[in-house]
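lol forgot to send this yesterday, sorry. struct tokens for the thing we talked abt
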């Protein structure tokens, strides 16, 4: 088993991806990395697909919006209160339990969006994520 997968399994067992601050931080870092690399990402979308520059921009915008929406849905104080319900002798019926490790295989069409949207949702749910992207599948534009 690769050391990367072992690290992901260890992170899942330790529960480090489940804390509200960690989730917020990861979504913010993802958002910032996307914004910082906007031009390169859009160019990669154009190069790896049959999309126009405008279509690549729309795909990027939709992916960035998915990350922003996941971040905006986090109510830090509510999450902390729910986390400590049991310790405070309250019912924890609304407690969310992450899947643990999520494996994402994006679709061939809109590869970037199909990766970022479920990635941000999985992070927001407190999961560790592994993504599989086989670039060779996306170079067959037309025959």
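and heres what i got for the seq, position by position
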């Amino acid at each position: 088993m690769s050391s990367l997968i072992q690290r992901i399994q260890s992170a899942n067992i330790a529960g480090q991806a489940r804390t509200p601050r960690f989730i917020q931080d990861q979504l913010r870092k993802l958002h910032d990395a996307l914004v910082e690399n906007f031009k390169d990402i859009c160019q990669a979308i154009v190069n790896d697909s049959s999309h126009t520059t405008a279509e690549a921009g729309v795909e990027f915008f939709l992916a960035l919006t998915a990350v922003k929406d996941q971040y905006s849905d986090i109510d830090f104080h509510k999450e902390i209160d729910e986390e400590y319900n049991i310790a405070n002798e309250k019912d924890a019926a609304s407690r969310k339990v992450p899947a643990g490790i999520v494996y994402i295989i994006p679709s061939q069409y809109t590869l970037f969006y199909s990766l970022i949207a479920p990635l941000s949702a999985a992070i927001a749910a407190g999961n560790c994520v592994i993504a599989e992207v086989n670039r060779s599948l996306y170079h067959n534009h037309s025959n």
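Confidence is low (pLDDT under 50) at residues 137-143. anyway ping me if u want another try
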